[in-house]
Amino acid sequence: MPLSANDPKRQTWLEVPNQSDFPIQNIPFGVFLTRDDIITIGTRIGDTAIDLGALHQLGYFDGIDLTDDIFLQDSLNDFIADGRKTWRLVRNRVSDIFLTDNPALRDHQEHRNKVLFSMDEIEMQLPVDVGDYTDFYASKEHATNVGSLFRDPENALLPNWLHIPIGYHGRSSSIIPSGTPVRRPVGQTKPGEDGKPGFGPSRLLDFELEMAFITTASNDLGKHIPIEEAEDYIFGLVLFNDWSARDIQAWEYVPLGPFLGKNFASTISPWIVTLDALESFRVEGPEQNPQPLPYLQHQGPKNFDIHLQAIIQPDDGQENVVAQSNFKYMYWSMAQQLAHHTVNGCNVRSGDMMGSGTISGPTKDSYGSMLELSWRGQNPLKLNDGSERKFINDYDTVILRGYCENDEVRIGFGDCSGKVLPARKL
Ligand code: MN
């Protein structure tokens, strides 16, 4: 099926600000509360939110096989479960409705009043009910940096890393949408000289600059997803801040890996940008040496050129870009991650979320966490108000942004932001 919605020549009758993340070529999917306190599935063009439930009730999706209530839901899980053909039909149709020359909705004021909202009239919700969340560790630069800091610079990359897309099962209950405050976690830390573990608010609170992909139901338990089919089961991507308490993590992670240092909050951007919308931005990933096992080998470009930024904004202060990275630096592609995840017969469901792991690039300004940027506090970052940061302070807001851009079109993700609040009283 052609991705007509991707045509860079398409223009819309809605107003789209210059450099918007959401031109008519994007058509992401999200869930929001309307001004009438109704929850609905929607999309966004420019700064206009579009109620897909209302559009469907008014007959704008006639001819597409959809249940009556598919968009009148508090999550995208059922729509995602309908599969890629339906996603494409709906995305193409939404694009058609808003084409400059299409008068059907454009000239129907009564319908427009039911369908269109300004962004300040709505409240974004979590787009999916995340059943299972997995976090990978797919950036070689990040794994090397963390291995150097936590263990041994001489053997930074463990022997399995170049053969396996390393991951762990995270926790989905604490995944929150952009804008939700994050309370500084409390926990145990490494013993000091008295041999007793510390306990209190984390002093090394960090962000992780990641992206996450959302799957549709793909394989039954016991079956695997062959790598050449893996992308068929990826609905889309969000920005993902995998907040991390490095002092809690350092004490707890041996032998089973991250636990309370990671599961107190993970922030996502609320609009899921479809894999289809990113089609023009495919690029080859880093060269893989040694060659992976056959079940992880694929042909053609499977990485995506998505510019990523991490920003710290002190309370009432200015934004400071502290990292500029790119999703293309991922050593293991999403297809490889999904093929690996299911090779043992593990089943994946609609609305599952797979984090990439921190995306660090090759240069010091492209590292995707404060742990790496400040080299565990040895080189504090100077902000433009003169203050310094080794890690994240109370009342700092961390914002992740991401976008793809070529000569014709820019596709972005909007903000993934969260403000840190002081720890609860002990
Ligand atoms: Mn992570």
Description:
The protein is built from nine helices and 27 strands. It is α+β, with helices and mostly antiparallel strands and 426 residues long. The protein has two domains: 121 residues, SH3 type barrels; 289 residues, Fumarylacetoacetase-like, C-terminal domain (Fumarylacetoacetate hydrolase, domain 2). Strands 6, 7, 8, 13, 14, 16, 17 and 22 form an eight-stranded mixed beta sheet that branches. A hairpin with a 6-residue loop joins strand 20 and strand 21. It is globular and about 75 Å long. The structure holds manganese (II) ion.
Give the helices and strands, then pairings.
Blueprint lengths: L29 E4 L5 E7 L2 E4 H6 L19 H5 L2 H14 L5 H4 L2 H7 E3 L4 E2 L8 E4 L3 H11 L16 E3 L5 E3 L4 E2 L2 E4 L8 E4 L3 E2 L2 E7 L18 E8 L2 E2 H7 L13 E3 L4 E2 L7 E2 L19 E2 L2 E7 L6 E7 L7 H9 L10 E3 L14 H4 L7 E2 L5 E2 L7 E9 L4 E3 L3 E6 L5
